[in-house]
Amino acid sequence: MQAIAKSRQAATVSGGNTHLLRDGLGLLLIIAAGAAGYWLFPDNLALLTRVIAVALLVLSIDLIVGYCGVATLGQATLYGAGAYAAGMACLRGVTEPMTLIVIGAAAGAMAGLVMGTIMLRAHGLAQLVLSIAIVQLAHEAANKASAYTGGSDGLAGFSPSPLFGTFEFDLWGRTAYLFGLALLVLVFILLKFVVASPFGMLCRGIKEDPVRIRSMGAFVFPVLLKMFIISGAVAGMGGALAAISTQVVGLDSVSFELSANSLVMLVLGGLGSLYGALIGTVIFMGFEHFVSAINPFHWMTMVGALLIAVVLVAPGGLSGLIDRALPGMRDKGGQRP
Amino acid sequence: MQTVFSIAIDAFAYGMALFIICIGLSLTMGLMRVINLAHGAFAMIAGYIASYAQRELGTGYAIALLLSILGTIVISIPVERFLYRRIYGSPQLTQVLMTIGITFCVIGITNFFFGPTLKTIPLPASLAAPVDIGFRTVAGHRLFVMACGLVVAAGLWFLIEKTAFGIKLRATVDNAGMADALGIKTQVVYAISFAIALGLAAFGGVVGAEFLPIEPYYALRYMVTFLVVVSVGGAGSIPGALLACLVLGAIDTTARYLMPDFGNFFFYAAVIAIVCVFPRGFLGRAQ
């Protein structure tokens, strides 16, 4: 493991150019896929926008699970915080979409701060249980505080003003989709910088061996907490995007099911790889759309079998398989994420 | 006074039902170090079998209970051999994912065969009737569950502390490699304890069906509850699990009686507080 980390580091330093080229190519692919979705499925843009919102959530889980090695089954807390914050702000007169996204990100970051402070006190199983308890608690709280959140009916009746004053959020969801795509690309670029920065390397070091990092003189807790805040901001943006595009925030946005499903998406795509998070989300939600329309129980069996297969056969997820199939790419590009 | 008494009876019976299901999970997690999120799935299988036996085959409650336990154990053997044996000692996340996968499969498959409806397990007349305990009457089923819980706790304690198998089990847990070298067949020990754990899950699932009704998403709905109970009690500790079940059962039942519209709010608030104060659970040992 150490050897791999070293070779990766060396590759980043020496092969900066190919690295840049590869990320540029990846970004182009994302944009191309997004545009293809726009042209190929003009009737399903609402679904595609939801995919983008969930992709942001999955990216945020990747930051914590894939880069820091902290297992969490409660990430939807942060997503829901962003969604409810954006919805409530919109109801109270702040209708500018960009501002709403920023509000969602801020709320998510705050929730991430609180959640990280609680979760990082524990280790292992207790940590996992804490994450579940937090999301369930948030769910019950959102259900109970119906004066603010609309309870089980959901928060509805708000409408964001047109983007830049001209592009309305129409019935077909074109504006929402393109807005979401732009947001996703922007966040993706920023996260690329974050995970390649010394801070990102430190996080990966903590994942590999926290004791060694501590004895090297770094403080583990603040680093992880910082990553929790960043992750919260990303998840909050996803929530705010979902709120803006659907103009309703339901209790399911703060649920254990959403947290577990998005973790499954991440694992399917590949832990510790930003591309993996996107691939996993698109494939999972695409299949879900088609199969669960036929019979939801077939869908569950399929996801279950897929999960078992991934754990047994391809622990690196789909992006790990791609890396294995194209070893040349990896050697030239050096670092995978 | 009346309310306090009925809360106490319900809380105690509910805690015992939880205990019967969760003690198996506590064993797998504490002794075998596997986070088995699919534990509830096996309780659900048992509930489906018991319901099917009683309603379609027309057997009595006792026979149905026995059938469901045997059926669950039979199903669990290949699952242990081919799936669980590969994740002993794996990282937590791997275990969580694998067992969530198994849970999804179980939900999908059972509902494909038995249909997505609520399954009832009718009680025999002797358990459904209220029992007079001197100063008031209590539902017979509640007393039955309490007795079952106490018997299970005592039986397990005896098995682990006093029998030859218990010695082998504890040796395997402490140092599997050394136990293997001394001639203990660790694979067999694991398989047997896994079967015992799932048999208890099956027993609890059927007996506790009055508290945790058998429904299509049973395995997913109570997955969190079971996991929480075990981690609060401290994985692998029988008294710890008993204490956790009684405390959490009491909190949950009291909150449901007095503040029903808060749902599970107090349950999870208590869990967060307890885990923050006792990161290893009430009686969990240092790892």
UniProtKB/TrEMBL annotation, chain B:
It is a multi-pass membrane protein. The chain crosses the membrane at residues 6-27, 34-53, 59-84, 96-114, 143-160, 188-212, 224-250, 262-283. CDD domains: TM_PBP1_LivH_like. The keyword Membrane applies. It is found in: Cell membrane. InterPro entries: ABC_transp_permease, BCAA_transport_permease. Keywords: Amino-acid transport, Cell membrane, Membrane, Transmembrane, Transmembrane helix, Transport. Belongs to the binding-protein-dependent transport system permease family. LivHM subfamily. This is Branched-chain amino acid ABC transporter permease.
